Amino acid sequence: MRVAIALFLGMSAAGGSWAQTASLAGPVEGFTFDAPTRSLRALMGYPGASSFGPPLVNGVDAAAVAPQRNYAVAFQNGRCVFISGLDSNALATPLSGIALQPEEIVWSANGSLAILYSRSAGWFQAVTGFPQSPSAQARVDVTRLGGLLASIAADPKGQRIAVGISGAQGGVYWTSDRQAFQPVAAVSNPIALAFSTDGGTLYVLDGGTQQVISAGINTAGSLTYALGLADPVTMRAVAAGSSGDLLYVAGRSDQLLRVLNPATRQVVEDIPLAFRPGRLDPLGADSFVLSARTGNSTPLWLFSRVPVSGAFFVPAIPAASSGGALGVGGTQ
What we know:
By secondary structure, this protein is mainly β. About 0% of the residues lie in helices and about 50% in strands. About 45% of the residues are buried.
């Protein structure tokens, strides 16, 4: 998403209008939700020399930006909204049919599907049709699968959803209609799931054995990858040209990002980290968020694959820049 833009940020609300002209000329790596300032912001510059731009939308309790897109699903005062035009004229539109605020939100790679879900309550809710006509589907209770919701993922085209259920009868399932669930693998602690970039393979991170299981969606059989990590927490498949996918696995207490070649089951690269990673959320075309900000004084940590693989921090936002922009007070 590294494009040079100058943004005009505006949103009208009941009883008034708020607009702010922001000087954001220059490369933009992507857009992200910043929890300490309750705002959506652009990350300006390139990894290694990037900073937070001014707030695009304020007063946000939770949000997730679609991968390499200019729109997000957000919550403000218990209300779910679709925020579009982050790179031009931010606009909030209510999303009806969503009664509960989720604990987390994940997107399909093409940005057509968002999955809102709660591990503690054991449900997920799909929102389809982005960005033209987002529509909330019925909430799905997965406790009927016999355990606790441990993980969830969408395939790249937003056609299938995979869920991991933990417990003595735990396992991994996929569904295309949110009604019938097809078993993929019997795993008691599937802590993370990731589809291959072509959607044909589902990778399962087994927290009990610290291994990755590779299972074909439409084929029988599976392969197992030994990770050699003490505390793997999440993973993501990334296209690597003609050589196929690479699988990135984050080790939390290991403070390591391990890159595997699924075809050979060999370690391609180890990237030592100076912090504990907790996520691998897409940001730009070649970058991920490894650790979001948790407080006003903490930085955001990024990983970028170009020009060289490495982790980079985005400095904490100065107190004077933490507020004063648009709020999600209404809709247009």
